[in-house]
Structures are given as structure tokens and as C-alpha cells.
Amino acid sequence: MPRIRAPFALAAIFLFASVAALSAQTPATPPDEGLYASYFFGAGYTTVEWIVCGSTQESEGCFGSGQIGPFGNAGALIEGNPSVNASTGTVTRALYVVDTAAGSGTSVALNVYKKTDVVTSSYDTTTVTLVKTVTLPLTGGSGAVAYMAANSGYLFIGTNLSTSAERVQKSNLALESIGGFSPPINVSSITTDKYGYVTVTFGDSIEGSGNNGFVQFGPNGSSVGDGGGAWFMLSTDQALTTATLPTTSVFPAEKLQVRPKKQN
Question: What is the pLDDT of residues 117-148, one digit of tens each?
């Protein structure tokens, strides 16, 4: 009997393991998959209004709205990656707002909010609460344009009036300045790609001026390169508009080199 039954037992074990592996590879549907948040601004970008709409399993429409602020000038906003508690239907994410006219009107501050959605079969309850405000060593005020990009672990923030940008670690909001060009060059763009690589671009739009440069970072936040010229990155969901970007006469021939990686 054991010789007859063993193959069936092994087959059952293999089938169970295969199903379990398939289940492990198939992520659960996020509770807020059918929902979306829209943002709009009050006069002078002093407040940010939000509204959550979409559909749940049993209802559709707009479920909640609110306001955050006040700000001197809400110059840039970005959401963090969601954290999901499937057992409670709760989705939590950070909302980052750069204020380019904080304090007396010339300071730059990063405001970190916690956005929580509790989703049931028929409703979504959304709350947005301020967690912390961090003053950044950047130049703000009238005419300041904010730039911000992010990957899973870091924010990269600058303004067009600053000769440096800031790398902000999301986990503890630790700051590190990015720049160091001599003579100093103001930030002109911050871009990222889908894998979390980030380019901070400095300089003007004058062809051949030599007054531009870039610093690039990897997904883990470490620097992977820098040089002269106005370089950018492309994402898969937001076009890079050239309306306000600098051009460059520095081309990457000297960068086209391949070398062996160091073995640990």
C-alpha cells in the first residue's frame, strides 16, 4: 500500500506547495485600489485642498475632503509609497509639501503629513494630519521655484534661488546638502526614473556657457555620478517638459566607459 499511495501523497504535497507559492507571488488587491485623491490650491498657494473620490465594492462617488496649511507658498507636493494593513482595510502614506515662503517669507520648510484611508465595502474615511515640519537650508521667498523628486528612501529638494539641494532621508528626516560647484550654480531641475535614480541639475539655459552641472543618485541614496552639462532623467508616468529646462553643450562621450565591478 505505501508504494501505491506515496506518489499521490507526493503529488498532493507538490500541488499544495505550488498553489502556496503562486498565492505568495500574487499580491492582494489594495483596499484603496478604486480610489484617487485630487488636490487643488487656495489663493496664493497658501492652502492645499484635497478630495478623495472613486469606488469601493458597494458604492461610488466622493467620500471625503479637507484642507492642509496654511503655507507661505506651497511650492511642491509629492506622495509617499503606501503602507497597507489588509486586515483593517487601512492604507497609510506620507504627503510631503515644500513651503518656499515659510516663516518670515524667505525660509524653505518641508511639511510631512500622514494621510490615512480606512476603506470598508461601502465607504472610505480619510484623515490627513501634520507629523513634522523641518526647516531646510535653502533660499526661498518671492520668485522661488521649488523642485522635488523622490525614491523609496529619500526626498531630493531644491529651489531655483539655492546653490545647493537637500537629500532628505524619509525614515528620520536627516539632511545632507548636494552641490559644491565652483563657482556656485543654482538648482534648475530635479528628475527621477522608475527605478529610483535621481538627477539634480544645476545651471542656466545658455548653450555653451559652461554654467551648468548635475549630480546623480542611486535608489539607495548614494551618489553615482556628477559632471558638467544639464542632464535629466525620464519617468514612465510624467513627461519631462522642456519649457523651463536648461540645455547643454556637454555630451557624454567621456562617460561612455565600462570597467569591471569590484568583487567583495
Answer: 999 999 999 999 999 999 999 999 999 999 99
For the entire predicted model, the pTM comes to 0.85
Paired sense of beta strands 212-217 and 107-119, if any? unpaired
| Nearest Cα residue to 118 out of 31, 213, 244 | 31
Q: Cell for 29?
A: 488587491
Q: Give the C-alpha separation, 77 to 45, whole Å.
A: 12
Alpha-carbon distances, residue 105 vs 45, 66, 97, 99, 162 (angstroms): 13, 25, 16, 9, 15
Length of the chain: 264
Q: Where are the domains of the chain?
A: 29-137, 145-257
pLDDT digits (tens, 9 = 90+) for 175-229: 999 988 888 999 999 999 999 999 999 997 555 556 889 999 999 999 999 988 8
